[in-house]
Every structure is written in structure tokens, then in C-alpha cells.
Amino acid sequence: MVLRVVQLGEPILKSSCRGIDPDELASDEVRRLVADMFETLADSGGVGLAAPQVGSPLRLILAGSHPSAHGPDRPDVPTAVLCNPRVVWASTETEAGWEGCLSIPGTLVRVVRPLCVRVEYLDLEGKAGSIEHSGFYARVLQHEIDHLDGILTIDRAQSADDVVRRT
Ligand code: NI
């Protein structure tokens, strides 16, 4: 089922999410949430979605990357489910990039982030995984993990010049 995406101004976007107990991963609640998040993400045309954006307070994200008209150089990374994702290493080298967010439609925000990150997480079977990426997909991962801590792109803007209407 395609879910409504929570919009800027709704309190859950500013709250910290709770960790998922591995025992919960096989629950109907989590399985339905993941299935609905996949449908919602596909419907929106976005590259990532965090559980609080569909009203759930769990530390769970979807993140992928695909070349597109906007980003022909984006890597092709299948959309993955990451439970309790944590950035365990980040490069000192940073990069600025314009980010959209399904919860802040029509707006792009310039965000400076580490160029490379390593993220540890659990998959839906409860198996621990680790991914290291640079560039666009590293940005997607950091953007979605920020959502789990109530941090939005606009919180990371350094000046009003970093926020523009998408044309
Ligand atoms: Ni977002």
C-alpha cells in the first residue's frame, strides 16, 4: 500500500527513532512496513525513504541509487532495507551537494557531508552487514540516517542561499 509521506512541520520528522529489536524483524508489523515503504518509494520516484517519513518511529531506512535524467552519473545500487543503520566511519573529505526530500517537496538544499562513509546495519533476516560507499549513494545513506535522528536537510543548510525552490 502506498502510504502518505509525512511533510515538513509534522512532529515525527523532528523526533529520534527507536532501535529495532532483532526479534521484531520477522513481525507482521515490520514486514508490512517494509513492503509499504517499497511501494511508497517506487510511487514517489525517490531514492530513499526513512520509516518516520511514513509515520513509524523505527530505525529503518530504504536506500538505493539509479542513474536518472537528473543524475546520469549516479551508481546503480539496488534499493536495500537497512535496520538500525549506523555511520561507523566517515571520511574527513567532504563534498557539497543539492538534496531533495520527499518530506520537503519542491525544495533543494545544499548540504555538506563526508564524501565516503561506512555504515553498519542489520538486514531483515537479522544478519549484520557493512557497506562502504562514496559520492551519491553515501549521500543518500547519510540523508536517510539523519531522518532517524530527526535531522532534516534544512537543519544542515549553512545559509539561506543553501535553500532553493526546485524549478
Ligand atoms: Ni528526506
Which tags fit this structure?
3 helices, single chain, binds nickel (II) ion, 5-stranded antiparallel β-sheet, globular, alpha+beta, Peptide Deformylase, 167 residues, 20% helix, 3-stranded antiparallel β-sheet
Topology summary:
Elements: H1 28-44, E1 48-50, E2 60-65, E3 77-90, E4 94-99, E5 107-114, E6 116-122, E7 128-134, H2 136-148, H3 153-156, E8 163-165
Antiparallel strand pairs: 1-2, 2-3, 3-6, 4-5, 5-8, 6-7
The structure holds nickel (II) ion (NI).
Q: Provide the domain count.
A: 1
Mean pLDDT score = 96
Coarse structural class: alpha+beta
Bound molecules: nickel (II) ion
Level-1 CATH class name: Alpha Beta
Overall body shape? globular
Main pleated-sheet profile: 5 strands, antiparallel
What is the chain-wise order of helices and strands? HEEEEEEEHHE
Helix content: 10-25%
**Number of contiguous helices:** 3
| Assembly state (oligomeric) | single chain
First-last Cα distance = 30 Å
CATH architecture: Alpha-Beta Complex
